[in-house]
Amino acid sequence: MITKEAVVAAPAPAAAVPEPPRPATKRRAWDEAPRWQIYLPLGVYLVFTLVPFYWILLFALRPAGSTSLVPWPVTSVHFEKVWTDRSFGTFFHNSVLVGVATLIMTTLVALAGGYALARFDFKVKRAFMLALLCSQFVPGALLLVPLFEIFAELQMINSLGSVIIAETVFQLPLSMILISNFIKNVPYSLEEAAWVDGCNRFRAFRVVVLPLLRPGLIAVGSFAFVHSWNHFLFALMFLNNQEKQTIPVGLNTLMSADSVDLGALAAGGIIAAVPVVIVFAFIQKWLITGFSAGAVKG
Amino acid sequence: MAQAAAVAKPPRPPRRRRASATPRRLPYLLIAPAALLMLGFIAYPVLSVFYYSLQEYNPTKPWRNGFAGFDNFTHIFTEDPLFRDTLVFSAKWVVVEVGLQLMFGLALALIVNQTFVGRALGRALVFSPWAVSGVLTSAIWVLLYNSQTGVTRYLADMGIGDYGVSWLSDTSTVFPAAVVADLWRGVPFFAILILADLQSVSKDLYEAAEVDGASRFKQFLHITLPHLKDAIILSTLLRAVWEFNNVDLLYTLTGGGPAGATTTLPLYIANTSVESHDFGYASALTTVAFVILLFCSTVYLRLSKFGGEK
């Protein structure tokens, strides 16, 4: 009961009295635009969205040299080549490690920090919030050189740890702000009630608050995963060893070759897309509720 | 341990005290991991960029390294035409991208916020490029723009345009070509954020407006848009900073070319530091970029009166 009230604040409550006789004017309510005004622009936009996806699928599945617009007969040659000859198997493994580690680290650190920001007033809070906001303006790409020197000092060049740390750090500020907003949406009184029942602060948080944070955490965590899965510059800079590289770097290598093997590039692209598309399909619904709950309000 | 706790007779008072006594140090403990990570890997690098900007620093030419004062900065503003060119291109890129993404993103959000058959599938499909990386976007559009086997070939088959046209290697077509590629994955970002914010518009307002006979366009103008104002300001700002800083797409799609026609300031900086190893000069450029960004963001927030009138 509590769960629903606290989290699903977004959808308007069902109209108290459903009035059966709907006057003609009601049909022109905002909700009910003429159908063609929805389907026509949506259809046009879908073409723009889907043609590129179809195109890469086409190149990945049809034999090299074919100009057919239908990928038939289907061939898996490009996938086999890219997975073994071009080491995408290794890259995939590395990317998964980086993505999952970044997800876990970002979520845990941001959860701790977000809780502090949501529930306490402390001396450096304002300064800390300001630092979080300012860090949004710091271009990670422009800190490549000093970051490289730091990781060289720590002997972490060519280890996935460097990329994981760098990705986590740049995901943290936004994640923390979002999570603290999610926590603020959970009434403090729920936690206090749990204390009275004999829970300590941590247990109260785990039992009462954490379950309510699910949509928000899913949004933040998948953000971190997708972002680190996709991001390219840190891996390009910090990982020189081919055994350690990630999928985006592999794609870039394929693209910058003198004569681009289009089939291999397309197959590599599909391999890069599959995990994020799956994650996305799974979280899409949470993303919207998650964001609307964590929206920064004023 | 567990036994000792179980034996303690009056369980309530000490626990109460703990609940009220912990908060003093607890918040600092909780933000410590985040604060340490950010100090070490954001604050320290930023400071070292500021430091290097006053140095002549090039690992490949160690004999020239040393304190340079403001030499790097004078060079940027007086003798470096590339700085001006790339800054102008960055501004053009950010304004065009963010403007178009907002326009299409808003329209898209309004459409998929309606109730219609197939809405869930429609949403999932139009939002899907959001999850695609800059590098993958490049890969896809490299395939689409390829002069031999890309769309131009099939268009030429149908009698539209010429064979062998490569939009990415012609200075007159490369800008729109890159803009379209970036729009493809940028529009869903706005659409998702705006759609999220649309969920919190009170339905009562529309019904009241309906009763007063306001047209759908007027409802949009007087109810939806004011409600979305803060979300729009914030998302355009975040996106503008992101579009300014992000080099993934242009780096892999055009490499800043042809002939430097699509080199943004960050791309120029990356080339200066990674390819010419001129870290001192790159740091000075970074400092300038950072100041410009901060200045523009402040002005934007002031002018748009973010968070006001509510």
TrEMBL record, chain A:
It is found in: Cell membrane. Keywords: Cell membrane, Membrane, Transmembrane, Transmembrane helix, Transport. One of its GO terms (biological process) is transmembrane transport. It comes from the Bacteria. The chain crosses the membrane at residues 36-61, 96-118, 130-148, 160-183, 204-229, 262-283. It is a multi-pass membrane protein. Gene3D superfamilies: MetI-like. One of its GO terms (cellular component) is plasma membrane. Signal peptide: none annotated. Its main location: membrane. The keyword Ligase does not apply. Residues 92-283 form the ABC transmembrane type-1 domain. Belongs to the binding-protein-dependent transport system permease family. This is Transporter. It comes from Streptomyces toyocaensis.
Automatic annotation (TrEMBL), chain B:
It holds the Pfam family BPD_transp_1. InterPro entries: MetI-like, MetI-like_sf. Residues 87-300 form the ABC transmembrane type-1 domain. The keyword Hydrolase does not apply. The chain crosses the membrane at residues 26-54, 93-112, 124-144, 174-196, 249-269, 281-301. The keyword Transport applies. It is found in: Cell membrane. Its main location: membrane. Keywords: Cell membrane, Membrane, Transmembrane, Transmembrane helix, Transport. It is a multi-pass membrane protein. One of its GO terms (biological process) is transmembrane transport. Residues 1-20 are annotated as: Disordered. GO terms for cellular component: plasma membrane. Belongs to the binding-protein-dependent transport system permease family. This is Transporter.
